[in-house]
Amino acid sequence: MKNKVFYFLMLLTVATIVSVPVRVLAQECSGYYMLNNNAEYELINYDKKDKLTGRVHYKVTSVNSSPTKTEANIHSKIYDEKGKLATEGDYTVTCQNGSILIDMRSMMNPGMLAAYKDMDVKMHGDQINYPSTLTAGQKLEDGTFTIDVLDKQSGQALTSIVMNITERIVGDKENINVPAGAYNAYKINQEMEMQTKAMGMSMPATRIQTVEYFVPGVGMVRSESYKNGKLLSYSVLNKLSK
Q1: The pTM is what?
Q2: Range of the structural domain that residue 120 is part of
Q3: Domain count, the chain
Q4: Nearest in space to 93 (alpha carbons), one of 65, 54, 133
Q5: Per-residue confidence at 112, pLDDT binned at 50, 70, 90?
């Protein structure tokens, strides 16, 4: 169960982050690709042996702007390797002061919590921040996401899962080719750690490393996940439209 939960957390966390674009503009929310109403963005996921494991499709369903910020509601659909819809949901992306802010609670897919359907599940977390201007060597803010599973009748804590995203470092630009086209992308490295506590007992932490290839104005065009230096999986941008 631990490995299954971690796999979905890792996949959905990466998938959600990669769907969020940043454009190097002077704090103009109108320049962000996924803050355009009806914009669509699709990622294809593969395992380490280049076997298709699924795809994620995003569509902006509404955009609300005020003098201080812009918010977009994004509907996501996750398909399995056979093209069957596995689950779908909505989350909000905010542009404020020229940065994209993502509530990490939106990274959780309700479908993966089926094992806890008869329990009380509480989720809370930070916002992941992508600044409007990226430079090599820049350290981005960390993020933490927590899931608490409680017994509905007694309120007793059964399981607690904490996901930490740390060491987010911007690297140099690299040329990347994906199905959606050729891009000059920033390489961003980060650490992901999941800590699980069940019935008061802590389990060994699971750690992976991720590499994001991030294009200003578009978002993530490729991501890779590693454990102990070995590739686990990767995702590429398949198509985008607005």
Answers
A1: 0.76
A2: 2-241
A3: 1
A4: 65
A5: low
